[in-house]
Amino acid sequence: MAKAYPGIILLCASVVTSPISAALKPTSVLKSQFLGPRSDADVGPSEVLQKSSPDLYREEDPTILRVTVTSSVHQLTLAVNHEKILDLRTTEHNITTNTVDFTPWDTTSGLYVMVLNPSNGRLMMKRVLMTQEFGSSLELPTVLQSITPGRILVMAIKNDASLNLSKKSREFLTEMGVSSAIDLQFRQSLAWVGTVGGRVWAEATIQERRVKGLGCQWSSPVTLEADVPRLMNDVSSCFNGGQEKERASFCDKYDGYGHLCSCENPAPLFYAAPKLENSQIEGVPLIIIASNRPTYLYRCLVSVLRQAGGTLDRIHVMVDGRHQEVVDLLQLLQVSYTEHDATGMSRATRISDHYRLSLSTAFSLFPKTSKVILLEEDLLAGQDFFSFFNQTAWLLDEDPTLWCVSAWNDLSSLHIAHDPGLLRRVETLPGLGWMVTREVAQELLSKWPSRDKEHDWDLWARSQDVMNGRECVVPDVGRTFHFGLSGTHSPGLLHVAFFAGRPVPALPYVELHNVHRLKMEEYEEDLIRRLEDDPLYLNTSLHPCHPLFIPRNATGGRPVLIFIDMRTFIDYIAWKVFARCLGLWDLDTRASHRGLYNFYFYDTEVFVIGYPFSDYSYLKLPWVNVLEVKNISSLKKFDYVAPSHRFRFRRPEVEEMVQFWDVPKPRFPTFDESQLIT
Ligand SMILES: *[C@@H]1O[C@H](CO)[C@@H](O)[C@H](O)[C@H]1NC(C)=O
Ligand SMILES: *[C@@H]1O[C@H](CO)[C@@H](O)[C@H](O)[C@H]1NC(C)=O
Ligand SMILES: *[C@@H]1O[C@H](CO)[C@@H](O)[C@H](O)[C@H]1NC(C)=O
Ligand SMILES: *[C@@H]1O[C@H](CO)[C@@H](O)[C@H](O)[C@H]1NC(C)=O
Ligand SMILES: *[C@@H]1O[C@H](CO)[C@@H](O)[C@H](O)[C@H]1NC(C)=O
Ligand SMILES: *[C@@H]1O[C@H](CO)[C@@H](O)[C@H](O)[C@H]1NC(C)=O
Q1: Residues 6+ apart with CB under 8 A from 661
Q2: Which of 56, 156, 216, 296 has the most CB atoms around it within 10 Å of its CB?
Q3: Which phi and psi (to 5°) does residue 163 adopt?
């Protein structure tokens, strides 16, 4: 067990007299502990509950639900009518050694959102929003808006939820009736109980007085008790009769599905997806790769079910593990699925095994299909998702140098996405919504790394041994949106830097340009013609992070040619500086074609040639300089640049339409440009 002690907890001797917030209603009783934990052992089990005075507990009253919630550094508990339904701790008492072990505490920190059924008090949903981490507030509105009105909402902080809680999220919480949200301090405990769309029952928090120099680090734990009137019937009782009975039973158990469980405006259980006109992908299944994120899966499913081609007969969900809620959801929507347990030593190898099983199951379940489309549960499909694959499917049959069509473009962020009809070839496997043929899948399956070998399947699949010079077709503007923050590593940061600002066309049909020119020879012909047709050689001494490095619009339609240092396929040091400065994906070399990157920077078309690796290096003229990084140790400074992409590359006319606009503004230090590049 990991022993990760979060720091020294000092005794906070200050006695806070009135932690009761204005929102506190007379029906609730509030108790708080004023002393912080004195030693590790003090953080022990249910201290508050044991010490509470017994006279607070009345005889069971059938008309109320007594909700007891504790917020503290190392423990978060929730009880209904004295029955503990959640007990989350950082510490565990090890009987063998008689010591207190710490579990990875940072992964359990954050704002806990818990939903109770107002008629029986059962826990219907539990999510942790790690709003202490940069960017992780992004999901807060979506999660809170997905809860059904009339339900009991309990929120509590374990350790901290304020460090990176954005202003917009604070305002959102305030609107919901969390009165301490605006001023919530670092490591402040908070417990809150309310009815969604109704009244606030109680809120308790302690703002610790900070002792200067002593560094009082955490506020004291708070325990809140609220008596909430019990409803005879849950809100889901509005659904009755026929198919709706199944909805009633689903919605009585679970929450977090938005309109699926809304009485006023219920989402359909069946979507009569229109036929895809002149479909070339009849019988090609869509395999959704899922694990245990059912509310994500629901959103993903709806995005495909309501568009042309999204018929139930082609959709199959592959579920890793046994998860009742996932299965109940799929049965409610009558979506077919396979459950299985992937295996693997680590998380990455387990995911790999899940992909392997999904691919092989797909082709055996659909024995006649020549291709499959794969989509992960944390992606939303754009409205022309099937149409996009329909228009490009034949390329995979005709051109053996292509091995996938992907709906994702690694570079396509807000200021780069330019033309939804435009396609390119890239020497990588972008994934995130992609189509593959039976032959390629079989080849992959025959080489798949074994489960006991540590690996990342997508890194493996992108390796040159596997790709073997083949390419994928990608759109200039992606057709999937990655919205999943839970279940990934430093999700907020990655999202703010690379995923949050990606537009997806909101049109059910976009005619793709010159699909036949994506075949190898035709593509090469067109490319060479454009490269040789009087491009603008960029010979600037400006640093790539300088706002005027590439003109956004002043090239009169001529593409700009830039040379950067690149020695091998995987050499990306110069690309990293370049891409990071210009707000492009920079974690590795992706989206290139024979050492060439092609994209629009606002209205200027840009060709970046990796010199001398690229096959197009011959275009370099003697007087044109090559961007290189001389001093690798100075690269560290660029770590601060990625989170600022959204603020450096604005596009007001479209950004309001992009999801997750609530992106925190980071601060990043200035750096000495002259040190980096010659
Ligand atoms: C208790 O500690 C011992 C020695 O560090 C360790 O081997 C054992 O796994 C621990 N027990 C639990 C339940 O964590
Ligand atoms: C956000 O969180 C990071 C750690 O994830 C921390 O270093 C930083 O100080 C926090 N606050 C802001 C305003 O970025
Ligand atoms: C499907 O592809 C065919 C052939 O390219 C095309 O004629 C048809 O319009 C496409 N339909 C849609 C909805 O994309
Ligand atoms: C190209 O840039 C280099 C370095 O900034 C400079 O020395 C050279 O004069 C430039 N050439 C032209 C033709 O502008
Ligand atoms: C570029 O110029 C065109 C035509 O003048 C204009 O419509 C467009 O908005 C400009 N784009 C940018 C990013 O300034
Ligand atoms: C490289 O950069 C680092 C950090 O910016 C600096 O301390 C060091 O002196 C530089 N080395 C050279 C050879 O310029």
Answers
A1: 500, 655
A2: 156
A3: -50, -45
d(C-alpha 589, C-alpha 172), whole Å = 39
Q: Which stretch of DSSP H or E encloses residue 654?
A: helix 652-655
Peptide bond into 559 cis (omega under 30): no
Asked whether 500 lines ligand 3 (CB < 6 A), one says no
Interval 41-75: pLDDT, tens: 222 222 222 223 333 334 567 899 999 999 998 89
**Cα 98 to averaged position of ligand 1 atoms, centre (Å):** 10
Which atom of ligand 4 lies nearest, measured to the CA of 624? 1
* Angstrom distance (rounded) from CA 235 to CA 228: 15
- Helices (H), ranges, 559-607: 573-581
- As a whole number of angstroms, the distance between CA 338 and CA 325 comes to 14
Q: What is the CA radius of gyration of the chain?
A: 28
pTM (predicted TM-score): 0.87
Number of the ligand 5 atom closest to the C-alpha atom of 602: 13
Whole-angstrom Cα distance, residue 581 to residue 595? 19
pLDDT digits (tens, 9 = 90+) for 252-300: 999 999 999 999 889 999 999 999 999 999 999 999 999 999 999 999 9
Ligand 4: which of 536, 541, 676 to mutate, most ligand atoms within 8 Å of CB?
A: 541
163 close to ligand 2 (CB < 6 Angstrom): yes
Own/partner contacts of 567-572, CB < 8 Å, gap of 24 or more, are: 567/612, 567/613, 568/613, 569/427, 569/464, 569/595, 569/613, 571/610, 571/613
CA distance 525 to 506: 32
Contacts of 599 (CB under 8 A, 6+ apart): 411, 416, 418, 476, 584, 591, 605, 606
> Nearest C-alpha to atom 4 of ligand 4 is from which residue?
541
The C-alpha atoms of residue 75 and residue 486 are separated, in whole angstroms, by 21
* Distance of CA 392 from the midpoint of ligand 3 (Å): 9
**Helix residue ranges, H only, 453-585:** 457-462, 464-467, 491-494, 520-532, 573-581
Residue 418 beta carbon below 6 angstroms from any ligand 5 atom: no
Instruction: Tell the residue number behind the tokens 């002149």, with chain if given.
Output: 278
Quick check: 598 and 604 in contact, CB under 8 A? no
636 CA from centroid of ligand 6 (Å): 11
* CA-515 nearest atom, ligand 3: 5
Q: Could you read off the pLDDT of 190-208 as tens digits, one per residue?
A: 999 999 999 999 999 987 6
Determine which helix (DSSP H) or strand (DSSP E) holds 550, and give its type and residue range.
none
